[in-house]
Amino acid sequence: xxxxxxxxxxxxxxxxxxxxxxxxxxxxxxxxxxxxxxxxxxxxxxxxxxxxxxxxxxxxxxxxxxxxxxxxxxxxxxxxxxxxxxxxxxxxxxxxxxxxxxxxxxxxxxxxxxxxxxxxxxxxxxxxxxxxxxxxxxxxxxxxxxxxxxxxxxxxxxxxxxxxxxxxxxxxxxxxxxxxxxxxxxxxxxxxxxxxxxxxxxxxxxxxxxxxxxxxxxxxxxxxxxxxxxxxxxxxxxxxxxxxxxxxxxxxxxxxxxxxxxxxxxxxxxxxxxxxxxxxxxxxxxxxxxxxxxxxxxxxxxxxxxxxxxxxxxxxxxxxxxxxxxxxxxxxxxxxxxxxxxxxxxxxxxxxxxxxxxxxxxxxxxxxxxxxxxxxxxxxxxxxxxxxxxxxxxxxxxxxxxxxxxxxxxxxxxxxxxxxxxxxxxxxxxxxxxxxxxxxxxxxxx
Length: 446
What we know:
This protein is globular. The chain has helices at 4-16, 36-53, 75-87, 105-110, 125-140, 166-176, 211-227, 239-247, 273-280, 294-303, 375-378, 399-402; strands at residues 58-63, 92-97, 113-116, 146-152, 182-188, 202-208, 236-237, 254-258, 286-292, 308-313, 325-342, 345-357, 360-365, 389-392, 408-412. The chain is of the alpha/beta class. The relative contact order is 0.12. The protein folds into two domains: 4-227, no CATH class; 236-415, no CATH class. It has a nine-stranded mixed β-sheet, sandwiched between helices. The protein has a three-stranded parallel β-sheet with strand order 1-2-3, sandwiched between helices. A hairpin with a 2-residue loop joins β11 (325-342) and β12. α1 (4-16) crosses α5 (125-140) and α2 packs parallel to α3 (75-87).
């Protein structure tokens, strides 16, 4: 997703006739704090490439925006400020971010243009890449003078745009862009599990050199966004209640998503709470995709398709992920370097296998990955349309593709392992006041 500006820039270079110099590209699934040496090595490699490429008219970046490394609470702020030091004040620096990023003063000082994906699930990263490249080129040609205004909503909240009120809100801010000097509007959702100062939701408005208008619009839209607090999230069911809801559906496939074991949020994807209840309740005609278990994958690959073997599944990383599920499993498929898709992107699952026991099929993968699209199942030889229940691990990025085949989508709150309630997270660096840690962070008395 963060590589989208590069693919857009390649096309625009051919069309517009400018010289494109490509630098290092790298990615990783969210997890814990990044090793300091890893971050510094990657950062310094790219900074060296920037120096070698000088002089530059534009530096274009595709970043996630929530990286934390040992010694660096604001990796992207450190990175972009160092780029600014190299290129000087006249080079345009533009970046596309995942909205689950942090917005810091360092980034505001370093960047001329910042554009966040608007959609959650992130189905618009290609469109936002078109936007950020176009704005960067227009600024470099002197056609616009971007000014960025920010309103801090002082709020932690889930903001899925697949449902109201966020669906209509995003549609309205998109309609404001490109008119009356408004160049771009973005919502920073933040990454609430991070223990850094600048987490939280913010509203970003970029105007064509109209700072007062930008500040007023950011405040207006930000205050409206704050008024949504407590109303934007999905309806969650406990495990047994979710299963009961699924059983009541007359036809499938019913999609149940284990929201708080989402590798896209940094968890391992190996918790077994939901699988265990399906087994204990004797429910059949269900496919799970996926449970991260590299050791089980190796054992099944060595045994081969058709092998029947005792297998210990999942929950190998930490006690808070549950207990492993012990079964007598049949290996039904083995796929080296398995993949799934997320729109145009290819997502690696690593070596993967599918096993069957007691009327349940489980995909085991060796690369952590959340569930994005139904080809997660079909690529492993399981037809998702022929299963009554599909159980996945994802917060909302699955919605665009799975909603097309699901008779119903049910969101499961299994209690963890992701720290899903900010009020229970032992923050040490967060800026206060902020909702829901503080009921009235803006001091309005409302």
